[in-house]
Amino acid sequence: MTPIRIALIGTGTVGGGLLRVLARNQEEIMRRAGRGIVVARIGARDVVKARRAVGPVSGPDLPIDDDLHAVATDPSIEIVVELIGGIVDARRLVLAAIGAGKHVVTANKALLALHGNEIFAAAQARGVMVAFEAAVAGGIPIIKALREGLTANRVEWIAGIINGTSNFILSSMRDSGASFASALAEAQALGYAESDPTFDIEGTDAAHKLSILSAIAFGIPMQFERAYTEGISQLTADDIRYAEELGYRIKLLGISRRVEVGESNEEGRAVGIELRVHPTLIPARRLLANVEGVMNAILVKGDAVGPTLYYGAGAGAEPTASAVVADLVDVTRLHTADPEHRVPHLAFQPDALSSTPILPIAEVRTAYYLRLRVADQPGVLADITRILADGGISIGAMLQKEPEAGTSATDIIMLTHGTIEKRVDAAIVRIEALATALSAVTRIRVEDLA
């Protein structure tokens, strides 16, 4: 059978990995797909640099063009692989390829989180596929698991370590007692963090990915703009150490959960979706708490199957290329299938997406770690516990550290039972107003993940 012809736009780390995997495993891929998959054309902003990057794999005769639009709309191409990253140019090229009747494979999580609804609608109207396994967690097949493997389940919640850079930093802080700044510098020296690491350390990258996962899990549109996002840059070595003393580890988690809210009525209680990324204390005995370094892991709880864990390399040239090739094989298999009988982009039929609202963080219910720097004098603890009790917040565990040498200041660390976040917000305002409070209260959310 004639090989399917693809155009690769972008020859960076993942693009190079894709070419290597396709070349090395072509026979195996052909046996799985039923026909060959051939890179027939490459688009790159810098042709000379691209030729230097891909030449050893693709040979000198593969056409490389800096007219990316022409590559994306070439009549001889059947699948366009978008790996240039960014948003503005990528969106324009993906929509152009769809408009020209091309299937699209992309690893661009930011593009999908921000413009996925538009892109999927355009693909649906044109009868083409958009595949994006590589957009979340690199080589871990979490998109396919949610869209297909867990179809029989009502997904209850997702909790994932979906940013390797932040996980490496937190692992380094725990292992060595290093400060956040030192651990970040180590990550940059090893190439795990960009020179500008903001998207990683402030949770934006994880929120992009979580927006995609939650849309597939719960059958809702992409809603990145409603995700609560908090990073790890304010965490201290003290917090890492105190969490360990309490039997917990701190991870940057993306959490999405279907919850009942409000009062019951004749139709039952209303439902909302939590969509949040933030540092989280997890019991050290949980598998997710023991995912270290740059590895990713996603825990999905389904009503029928129970909890399932997906673990592996969340980034890197060939792990991500593995997911791209898996998409290419899927699209090749379904290339001639009736568009009405393909797996929907977001797992649910397009006309059956839910309008279930995203909960504001103030309405989320969870437990909390609170660290308070206070004056070491009688009555301080009583004042704090009274404020918490007034807010209906109960304490599950507590540590009180010895005053630092030469000072009259001490740290009090508390773990609360589950409560609504706005109650904790109100209590923190009152605690910080105490004359004995010597600094802002550190608040980190706690999840049991049972």
Task: Give a quick summary of the entry.
The chain has about 450 residues and is α/β, with parallel strands linked by helices.
Structural overview:
The protein is an alpha/beta fold. It is 37% helix and 26% strand. The protein has helices at residues 13-24, 26-33, 47-58, 68-72, 88-99, 109-126, 142-149, 164-176, 180-189, 198-201, 204-218, 237-245, 317-334, 380-390, 421-432; strands at residues 4-9, 37-43, 64-65, 79-82, 103-106, 130-131, 155-161, 228-229, 248-265, 268-283, 295-302, 306-313, 365-375, 395-400, 409-416, 419-420, 442-446. The strands form 2 sheets. Strands 7, 8, 9, 10, 11, 12, 13, 14, 15, 16 and 17 form an 11-stranded mixed sheet that branches. Strand 14 (395-400) and strand 15 form a beta hairpin.
The CATH topology of the largest domain corresponds to Dihydrodipicolinate Reductase, domain 2
Low-confidence parts, pLDDT < 50 over ≥5 residues?
none
Q: What is the CATH superfamily classification of the largest domain?
A: Dihydrodipicolinate Reductase, domain 2
CATH class of the largest domain: Alpha Beta
Q: Estimate percent helicity.
A: 25-40%
Supply the number of structural domains: 3
* Average predicted confidence as pLDDT: 93
First CA to last CA: what distance? 50 Å
Structural class: alpha/beta
Strand content: 25-35%
Rounded to an integer in angstroms, the radius of gyration calculated over CA atoms is: 24 Å
Helix count equals 15
Q: How many E-type strands?
A: 17
Tell me which CATH architecture of the largest domain applies here: 2-Layer Sandwich
- Major beta-sheet overview: 11 strands, mixed
Globally, the shape reads elongated
